[in-house]
């Protein structure tokens, strides 16, 4: 059974940092990409970033690029989302997800930013940024 298990969410003050982890199991993810999404109350799910499981291709949107970093420890089958300089508007449930690397995946932003491209999802972890 394929599973993605997230951890690391919590309450942090504005300007603080958190690191989310996403541990994969049940299959090899070497031909997959790991994506991160978030969903705030009353809002649509938002793409936060993606990296291939080898860790040599990544993309983050402008809204988080200078504050968030994605990394992967292939030996542990675990991905990470390092979030710095957090803002109140970063408050959301954060999800990791895995997408099979189809041809041209990273060449098509509509593919890697769409939740529909990801077949496996973690359970989500709450991140609350508040003073």
What is the share of helical residues? under 10%
Number of strand elements = 11
By helix and strand content, what is the structural category? mainly beta
Query: What's the total helix number?
Result: 1
Radius of gyration: 14 Å
- How does the major sheet shape up? 7 strands, mixed
Order of helices and strands: EEEEEEEEEHEE
What global shape is seen? globular
What amount of the residues lies in strands? over 45%
Give a verbal description of the structure.
Helix content is 3%, strand content 47%. The mean pLDDT is 94. 34% of the residues are buried. The chain has one helix and eleven strands. Strands 2, 4, 5, 6, 9, 10 and 11 form a seven-stranded mixed sheet that branches. By secondary structure, it is mainly beta.
Annotate the secondary structure layout.
Blueprint: E1 3-7, E2 10-12, E3 18-25, E4 32-39, E5 46-52, E6 58-59, E7 68-73, E8 78-83, E9 92-100, H1 109-112, E10 120-121, E11 125-129
Parallel strand pairs: 2-11
Antiparallel strand pairs: 1-3, 3-8, 4-5, 4-9, 5-6, 7-8, 9-10, 9-11
List keywords for this structure.
131 residues, mainly beta, seven-stranded mixed β-sheet, four-stranded antiparallel β-sheet, 3% helix
Short description:
This protein is 3% helix and 47% strand. With 131 residues, the protein is mostly beta strands. Strand 7 and strand 8 form a beta hairpin.
């Amino acid at each position: 059974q394929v599973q993605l298990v997230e951890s690391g969410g919590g309450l942090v003050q504005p300007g603080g940092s958190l690191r989310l982890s996403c541990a994969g199991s049940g299959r090899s993810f070497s031909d997959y990409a790991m994506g991160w999404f978030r969903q705030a109350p009353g809002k649509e799910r938002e793409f936060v970033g993606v990296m291939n499981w080898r860790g040599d291709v990544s993309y983050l949107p402008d809204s988080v690029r200078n504050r968030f970093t994605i990394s992967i420890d292939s030996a542990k089958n675990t991905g990470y989302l390092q979030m710095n300089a957090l803002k109140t508007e970063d408050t959301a449930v954060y999800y990791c997800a895995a997408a099979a690397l189809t041809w041209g995946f990273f060449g098509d932003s509509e593919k890697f930013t769409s939740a529909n491209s990801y077949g496996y999802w973690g359970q989500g972890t709450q991140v609350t940024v508040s003073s």
